[in-house]
Amino acid sequence: MAASSPFIYARCSYSPLITSFSQPSSSSSPCCSSSSTPNSICTPLSGANKVERHISLRAEAMSTTTQGKSPARTTGNLKNDPDHLLVLVHGIWSSPGDWSYAEEELKMNLGKSFLIHASSSNAYTKTFTGIDEAGKRLADEVMQVVKKNQSLKRISFLAHSLGGLFARYAIAVLYSPDTYNSGQPDDPVNCEMENSQKTDFSRGMIAGLEPMNFITLATPHLGVRGKNQLPFLFGVPILEKLVAPVAPLFIGRTGSQLFLTDDKPNKPSLLLRMASDCEDGKFISALGAFRSRVVYANVSYDHMVGWRTSSIRREIELGKPPRQSLDGYKHVVDVNYCPPVPSDGPQFPPEAVKAKETAQHTQNSVEFHEIMEEEMIQGLQRLGWIKVDVNFHSAVWPLFAHSNIHVKKKWLHNAGVGVVAHVVDSLRQQETSSILPTS
Predict the structure, then answer these.
(1) pLDDT digits over 171-219, tens only?
(2) What integer pLDDT is reported at residue 58 of this predicted model?
(3) Sign of the CA dihedral running 345, 346, 351, 354
């Protein structure tokens, strides 16, 4: 298989996954299913339980640690300064102001141990310059924040929409494969779900800090090409086919990357590369270093990002959209933990292999992009993910789902306050479990 279909994997190799999680008996299943499926682990998190610059930033991130520790960060925090950096990353054609409501809620509920930083390096048209360029700017910005705040020890990311892809690129720039253990004792009653997310990738630092939470809200992890991946096209095949070549005229390099049209004969599309560890960056290792990875996805009414791409699922895994809200978190309808699925690469049937080989010469074929999507899913599913489904079907303005999910403007998008509350409580719970002493 590998010899007959080298195109997509050119210059991008996956490394085997080793996980301490005991896989369910049906571990061949691509992902978890609904909470009613016995093999799934469903855990409500809340309440209950450029190139030079790129290289320079990587070196900078690695030099921030000394055997995993920055000397300035090992002497204790005598001034009670924040030790946990939470980076908020906005989406396309947006600005830090989009986080005003969420930022206020986070500061009020998480306390002084958190430094909440709304990223400003990619405002408005800067989001059109490409996911890679925006990711490098974000990484630079994070390093500047870390340098100015010597008390910081831990780092988390909360990103909306396209910002989630910027953040995924940035953490690969900031990643250093360090084996530093924070020294924090494990909480004996910490849930098995959290422990099962810890894989062999779970060793490394981000900007010299211990990576904790990586959370995305309605992020197109698989791009926006394909059936219903860009919902405002209503799933009409001719529209979905026509929009891909014209997208760069409106949103620049970012458009070609999102529509997977940036590939070259010897280099796959950026998003496919970002589903692996390759010469461009240790994308999977950087993600795997985080204690928790969470994706929030709108199951419907999101005109910008489809359910499948935002939740890293296949079409057959979607099922019927849940509608009943979880207690205390209006419009949050389901939470599932999908354990890591070990994979040395895709296992395609013979007809798919043939389609892939043919598609290397006709890269606009539907089969080619379906195969690319499958490979992205398989790459990303080598890590465990918590998947949170959101449904604004009962909201006054459900068609604002893409902005509701992070309450872009409180007076207009306040249907999403329950989602923000769920994020806040999840962060607070994770923070508590990471500092509780053993009995």
Answers:
(1) 999 999 975 544 444 433 344 444 444 555 668 999 999 999 999 999 9
(2) 53
(3) negative
Domain count, the chain: 1
CATH number of the CATH domain containing 30? 3.40.50.1820
Residue 55 lies in a domain: yes
Rounded Cα distance, 304 and 402, in Å: 7
Domain assignment of residue 310, yes or no: yes
Distance CA 132, CA 184 (A): 34
Tell me which residue range forms the domain holding 74: 12-432
Q: Specify if 438 maps to a domain.
A: no
Q: How far apart are the first and last CA of the chain?
A: 52
SS (HEC) of the chain: CCCCCCCCCCCEECCCCCECCCCCCCCCCCCCCCCCCCCCECCCCCCCCCCHHHHHHHHHHHHCCECCECHHHCCCCCCCCCCEEEEEECCCCCCHHHHHHHHHHHHHHHCCCEEEEECCCCCHHHHHCCHHHHHHHHHHHHHHHHHHCCCCCEEEEEEECCHHHHHHHHHHHHEECCCCCCCCCCCCCCCHHHHHHCECCCCCEECCEEEEEEEEECCCCCCCCCCCCCHHHCCCHHHHHHHHHHHHHHHHHHHHHHCCCCCECCECCHHHHCCCEECCEEHHHHHHCCCEEEEEEECCCCCCCCHHHHHCCCHHHCCCCCCCCECCECCEEEEEEECCCCCCCCCCCHHHHHHHHHHCCCCCCHHHHHHHHHHHHHHHCCCCEEEEEECCCCCCCHHHHHHHCCCCCHHHHHHHHHHHHHHHHHHHHHHHHHHCCCC
Q: Does the predicted model carry a pTM greater than 0.85?
A: no
Strand-strand pairing, 175-176 and 205-206: antiparallel
Q: Is residue 6 part of a domain?
A: no
Cβ atoms of residues 261 and 244 within 8 Å: yes
User: For the chain, what percent of residues have pLDDT higher than 90?
Assistant: 60
Q: What CA–CA distance (Å, rounded) separates 270 from 160?
A: 19
